[in-house]
Amino acid sequence: MTSVTRNRLIALGALVVAGAALAFIAFGNIGKNLVFYWTPGEMLAQGSKAYGPTIRLGGVVQPGSLRWDAGRTHLTFRVADSDKQGAPSVQVVSSETPPQMFRERIGVVVEGTFDRSQTFTSSRLMVNHSNEYRPPKPGDGPDRWKTTVSAPTAEAR
Amino acid sequence: MTSTLGTTLVLGGLLAAAFGAVVGIEGGLRHRAGALKIVLGAVTAFLLCMLGANLTMVYALVTHDFSVHYVAQVGSRATPLVFTVVSLWSALEGSILFWGAILAVYVFAFARSHRNDPPTNPLLALGTMMAVAVFFAFLIAGPANPFGRVSPVPPDGPGPNPLLQNHILMVVHPPMLYLGYVGMVVPFGIAVAALLRGQLGDAWMAVLRRWTLIPWTFLSVGIVLGSWWAYAVLGWGGYWAWDPVENASFLPWLTCTAFLHSAMVQERRHTLKLWTVSLSLASFLLTILGTFMTRSGVFNSVHSFTQSEIGPTFLVFLGAVLVVSVFLIAVRGPLLVPEGTMGGVASRETAILVNNLLFAALTFTVLLGTLFPLVREAFSGVKISVGAPYFNRMAIPLGIAILFLMGVGPSLPWGRASPETMRRQFLVPAAVGLGVIILSLAAGLRGASTLLTFGLAGFVGTVTLREMLLPVRVRMREQGEAFPRAVWQSARRARRRFGGYVVHLGVVLVFVAIAASQSYVVHTTATLKPGERFQLGSYTVQMTGLRDGSDPHRRWTAAEVRVTDAGGREHLLAPRMNFYERSTDPIGSPAIRSAAFEDLYLTLLAFDQAGPSASFNAWIFPMVSWIWWSLPFFVLGALFAAWPERRRDRAGAAERVSVPSDARSPGAAA
Q1: Cβ of B380 under 8 Å from any chain A Cβ?
Q2: Which end of chain A is more exposed for a tag (fewer CB within 10 A), N or C?
Q3: Domain tally for chain B?
Q4: B515 part of a folded domain
Q5: Residue B2 predicted with pLDDT over 60
């Protein structure tokens, strides 16, 4: 009887230790893999805390900031909190082909990292999905639809 | 008119459910035999109300009655009929209504098949299920009422979410998941009945096991179909992203799978009773949590969740179920005393126990990663998410350990294994596993965890096939039966064992496919003008031109592509971008060239009519389609295991004999 009790205690102890180890590893891993959702203004306010972790930067592509490099391999643009003049903004570099909807004033989410040179290196570029609906006129072809939907979308997120 | 009819039916369902819940639980606690008939009546009434309400909504959708709130929200005259019907479950209110109908069908099926049992257990179980039904009927009648009236009546609606209209898989995949989710209500009711009575005998345990297998099967199919849909429709080049919505379906699947294994220990050794029952309760809690997560909009942001009216209601229900479950386990749990003991360290029950702990650990890590952002945002207001690397790093080692145990468990006997048995059982499978690793290395494959997965897959596959074929060989030798007959006979005699091994083979397939498609993926992007080409692996991809087209509910632009594979064969592919009239964003349709060992996956990223030119995202995914090929294994294995047993067949036969007049009725003649 006592040996059964002792075995149970050992088993329980082992379980508690295993559970604690699992929780420790899990929390450690979570800490290393957090993705932060920030607007340019919020990110800049973090100071040096923003250098390093993966960030999803949400904002609007600033008008007039779109530039392709000579070989059309790298795209640079500025993401701003809003399309108002003087809104905080961040320089973004992307080596990815942007999606069809990408253009000035559109809401975007770029995932990547920020560094001391104040450049955001994007590893993923997503156009913000907006459910805003602008009715097309009858007879509009797909080309026309594309222009009706290209109007500036609401603020990212 | 339609609104009034629908709302009336839902209120009728609410009344029937409340009545059934009270009569069922009260009658069960006082062992009133006569109450079962009354509850059966309430269940039938609930079923008729729910089916009626759903049919009313389908009628409103098909006739484009935009005065009904839900139709105005998801209906559109331009949507094809099949997607109009499907839009019943394309948005929140409709899906909860549909949920109610499935719930009613499940409870009715349970009530019918146990109407002649000793009444106490079915009464308590049905009372519990009807109490859950009260909540859902209340949800449909109040916070998520789809039958609200719209005034003035709009001439047309926006149509369902374009993503949901884009592929036929959307017609099949959500109902499968719902059937899996809602079906967990039944085992929950059965488990609560066991706790309320404070006893769990073999017969009631068999009922619990059978009714868990049904939703487990649907959930498995739903998860695989969901990943297939994500792969074939969403076009981001993957099938699983550890998204909260995906995790929501994966979590109850994990606890449910753990349950199906610990139930075997309970059956053989009469121990782990309370643990097994707790897994049933946990599966139901996780499905409710999953519905809350996917349906309340809480995952867009904690702060947007106040806008969703069902969020708080769901949270209250979730809390109530949690409190009731914990209370029952704490107060009534000690009554479920084990009547047996565990065997030695090297025994099947120990292997299953360890398997259960691993499943619990996996559930914990996935749940933690899923809920962490919510908790963090609620307390500190910081918006974060947990990246996929966390899930991968946690799930891969646990998954590999589970795969290993899939080979160990079936090799070990119940009770205690002698060193001699272990040597005999493990020598050949371990050699096969090692052989697979060496062959993979020789073929130039690298990556420690990937090769380990392949090796373990060889090990588990050998064990599983041996366990399936051993009795067949005995029959062939002793009865002189031919191979197919021997397979059939031996399978028929141990159906659950055989079905379980078939499912194991499917799981091995999934493991291999995930490891290969994640580790050996090849990816590139390119922008091409007509006539230009790029190379990806052994494929040459050449763009030939752009083409526009239209369907009734959308227009599209496709990039026409000529793919030449290693053998010089040419394939024409056309990844395209769809423009739905009512949606601001174009929705891509990837083009997939699927072969036995790899998929070529092309998406159209952007195009320029003026150039013309098109930008592509291109991937090679080795073996990815093996994930979907596991479906028949899951379905056939589960069907084989869950098929009603012979005792039932005999009862059915007796029933048929007792009503011979039926055979001559016009319905039967037709």
Answers
A1: no
A2: N
A3: 2
A4: no
A5: yes
